[in-house]
């Protein structure tokens, strides 16, 4: 596993700490969950673009539905 250090404005860091506390999870776990969600969203977008380039409208519509369920 990799350790990643990031710089955030103090107010943003505090808000993230508060969210983690409200969810009763560690800040590390919150960042893991948010990163996982961001990666899933990006992968769905990339699959959509690939389907679009292949000209597969049925698959493209399926992927749009997936994006919709992710709240995008």
Question: Can you walk me through this structure?
Answer:
The protein has one domain (10-69). Helix 2 runs antiparallel to helix 3 (57-69). It has three helices and no strands. It has helices at 10-23, 27-54, 57-69. The radius of gyration is 17 Å and the shape is elongated. It is an all-alpha fold and 72 residues long. The longest helix has 28 residues, at 27-54.
Q: What overall form do the CA principal axes indicate?
A: elongated
Give the count of helical stretches.
3
Domain module tally: 1
In total, the number of strands is: 0
What share of the residues does DSSP label as strand, in percent?
Answer: under 5%
Question: What does the radius of gyration come to?
Answer: 17 Å
Distance between the termini: 29 Å
Report the structural category. Answer: mainly alpha
Percentage of residues in helical conformation: over 70%
Unreliable residue stretches: none
The residue-averaged pLDDT reads 89
Largest sheet: none
Sketch the topology as an H/E string, one letter per element.
Answer: HHH
């Amino acid at each position: 596993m990799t350790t990643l250090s990031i710089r955030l404005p103090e107010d943003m860091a505090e808000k993230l700490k508060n969210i983690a506390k409200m969810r009763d999870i560690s800040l590390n776990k919150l960042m893991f969950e948010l990163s996982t969600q961001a990666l899933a969203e990006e992968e769905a977008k990339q699959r959509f673009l690939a389907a679009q380039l292949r000209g597969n409208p049925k698959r493209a519509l399926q992927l749009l539905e997936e994006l919709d369920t992710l709240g995008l």
